[in-house]
Amino acid sequence: MKKQTLVLVLACLTIVAILVFIFFMKDTRAKPLFEATSALVVDAKEDKTLLSQNENKAVPIASLTKLMTTYLILEAVHTKKLAWDEMLSLRYLDDPQAVSLYAKTGVKYYTAQDLFAAMLIMSANDAAEALASQVDEKNFVDKMNAKAHEFGMSDKTHFSSASGLNEAGDISVSTAADLMILTKRLLKDYPEVLETTSRSEYVMQKGDSIQTTNKVLADGLVQGMDGLKTGYTDQAGYCLIATAVQNGKRIISISLGSKNEKERMSDAQTLIDFGFSK
Which residue out of 38, 100, 123, 253 is catalytically annotated? Predict the structure, then answer.
């Protein structure tokens, strides 16, 4: 009788072990492989987090900073403090990592509309700074940080410039979780931003064309992708906030700290595809 009991116990333990093994194997297969140090994937319609990794870790965010600048520029346009047809001037930025519209075209004066497109599509730092100066030359960065607090972003988030460039050694930092708060708020309040970020190319009023830095969008790697913003500096690595819509479902993915452009593209595609599979 004892032998039968022992056999039964061993059989039960074996079944439990198999079930546990299957569970963990299933859980492992459910998580996609990516290289970014921080990541977050959200179903925007359901406001449901589908994947997270180091989402509360504060890291440099480079040109992802421009999404807060974007929000404040659109706010200024909606409140008639800035007009799209205003002519603004670009200034030289003394930073080797700066992306310069002026250096590309040799044209100094552009409409606010063209600069807005350049800021988001080619990630032009001088365009972002020109727009910010027009809205509030002295206090724009303070407005950025105040808006972050208003949105409920954590104290880990700190903006140092309108463009994401370092300002006197001060670096813009945030977390994937805070950037998701900003992204969702931007898309909710000003969905028209997608009319710009969905473009792989944009032609300025004076005829110059610019191309997107979002290679996932440019190469058509994800169906329905319409944004949103790339970022890169030596400190931040390669970052991307990506969003796409398929069958009425919007997925937003954030990947921070990829090692190179190829990894950034692969990470974004993997995370977006994972989101739509859920």
Answer: 123
